[in-house]
Specification:
Distance between the termini: 58 Å
Shape: globular
CATH topology of the largest domain: Rossmann fold
Helix content: 25-40%
Number of helices: 12
Number of strands: 13
Structural class: alpha/beta
Largest sheet: 6 strands, mixed
């Protein structure tokens, strides 16, 4: 197999490459790629054009302004890519807000003179797409069997998780919140993970982009569980912005709040990433929904219950 030089511009792809056993072939990463921790040594090849340190509302307004001006939310470091001379660059087409997109990479590569790297664009909308993306990366590397083995193992773990869920008729309703202000419900592969864990997600559809929702929607559907997983936020950052939810007059009226079934998760490390750790994301949901039935391997790191106090 030809020695590959891989630049990953999306965290999930970096995790896929590592899980396939080819971390040593990574030569560059995006500013967000941080798992496994050893990839932090790699050259950073992108940065956000907007201030991502602001509040949920400020970030949303900055993104809208960039889109209105027909600007990309991210900047690709063309000079670094030229210096690294990658043979493969991995990006995505799923969301222009979440990570560097295909258009940005194609524009950057157009400036290359000496090399013509292969661009692999991931397209994760639902769980089967994640399996396809893993195989797409393995095929590009030149090791299709590794992709087949990894997908088979991940699917086996999810099948084992699903085998222990309760009957469909008694599954609780779950609202997964992907953004705090304005409110957004988590779509794409999240409804499938909720179902595998033993719940029934509301306010979104599997395989479709995450929709904006209103507080009236949330009140009307009144879920049994609320799972908070803002895109790009860890538990601490979510905690810092919780007043956006808890100060709303409708908050104390929700059944999940009354019954202390509100949970904070690390959306950045788990749910927002369409890579191998979607299995751990499903396991986190199972720990939340079956607290008395499963060991809580991710409690405190992947999730925590919101204290009523």
């Amino acid at each position: 197999m030809t020695q590959q030089r891989i630049v990953s511009l999306i965290p999930s792809a970096t995790e896929i490459v590592a899980a396939l056993g080819y971390e040593q072939h990574l030569v560059g990463r995006s500013h967000e790629c941080d798992y496994p921790a050893s990839v932090k040594r790699l050259t950073v090849c992108s940065e956000p054009r907007i201030d991502v340190s602001g509040t949920s509302r400020q970030i949303d307004m900055a993104v809208l302004a960039a889109v209105h001006e027909a600007l990309s939310v991210y900047r690709v470091f063309v000079d670094e890519l030229k210096r690294l001379q990658p043979t493969i660059i991995i990006t995505q087409t799923q969301c222009d807000v979440c990570a560097v997109n295909l258009r940005d990479v194609e524009a950057a590569v157009c400036e290359f003179v000496d090399t013509k790297p292969r661009i692999v664009a991931l397209q994760p909308m639902a769980l089967p797409d994640i399996w396809s993306d893993i195989q797409r990366v393995a095929d590009a590397i030149g090791d299709a069997p590794s992709g087949e083995r990894l997908v088979a193992e991940l699917r086996r773990r999810l099948d084992a998780l699903a085998a222990n869920r309760v009957e469909a008729s008694s599954r609780p309703t779950v609202a997964c919140i992907e953004w705090l202000d304005p409110l957004m419900s988590a779509g794409n592969w999240i409804p499938e993970l909720v179902e595998l864990a033993g719940g029934r997600q509301i306010l979104c559809e599997s395989g479709k982009h995450s929709p904006w929702i209103s507080w009236a929607d949330l009140q009307r559907h009144d879920p049994d569980y609320l799972v908070i997983m803002p895109c790009g936020f860890n538990i601490q950052r979510t905690t810092d912005e919780l007043l956006l939810l808890t100060d709303h007059p409708a908050w104390p009226q929700l059944s999940a709040v009354k019954n202390q079934r509100v949970f904070l998760t690390d959306g950045n490390q788990y749910f927002n990433r369409s890579g191998p750790r979607v299995v751990e994301s499903a396991e986190i949901l199972a720990e939340i929904l079956r607290e008395n039935e499963t060991s809580s391997n991710h409690r405190g790191t992947g999730w925590q219950r919101l204290s009523s106090g």
